[in-house]
Design a protein that fits this description.
With 158 residues, the chain is mainly α. It is 78% helix and 0% strand. It has 7 helices and no strands.
Length: 158
């Protein structure tokens, strides 16, 4: 915590403590792990790490910067269609693999049921990821268009 300056000279100097970049980087990795891998909410992660709220939000901003950049990039209809085609091919391959496994006389019913469950889960996750990317890119593009329109209207009024 910063201390209050005692003289005018001290007011002009920074009163922060030392800056530890390795510790900051470690905290950023911990935030990502707690939120992404362990499923904690941001407020739960902040409480667990016991860091100030402003620092936590600044670190979280840094932590998810690459994802924000990807989501904010203009994804063309062609790229979305490519991803949809890839998703369809993967699901078709999984279907062929399941049919082959179902026709295998050496495969026990329990093993087959476990495979089907795993393939179903993988398909659901792939669909969810596609849905997130396609909806997010559309929403980001709409927001950009609204912001651009608002800027143009402000410029016309001036």
């Amino acid at each position: 915590m910063a201390k209050a300056p005692e003289t005018e000279r001290e007011e002009s100097q920074t009163t922060r403590g030392r800056y530890y970049k390795p510790l900051r980087d470690q905290t950023i990795r911990q935030i990502r792990k707690l939120i992404v891998e362990e499923g904690l909410t941001p407020s739960e992660a902040q409480r667990e790490l016991q860091i100030p709220e402003r620092s936590f939000h600044r670190y979280m901003h840094i932590c998810f910067q690459p994802e924000r950049e990807v989501l904010a990039a203009r994804i063309s209809d062609e790229e979305i269609m490519d991803q949809l085609a890839i998703l369809e091919l993967r699901i078709s391959k999984d279907r062929r693999d399941l049919i082959t496994a179902a026709n295998d006389p050496d495969l026990e019913p329990r093993q087959l049921a476990a495979m089907v469950d795993a393939y179903n889960l993988a398909a659901e996750l792939a669909s969810a990821i596609f849905k997130i990317h396609s909806q997010s890119s559309y929403e980001v593009m709409e927001e950009r268009a609204r912001n651009s329109l608002a800027v143009q209207q402000e410029e016309q009024q001036q």
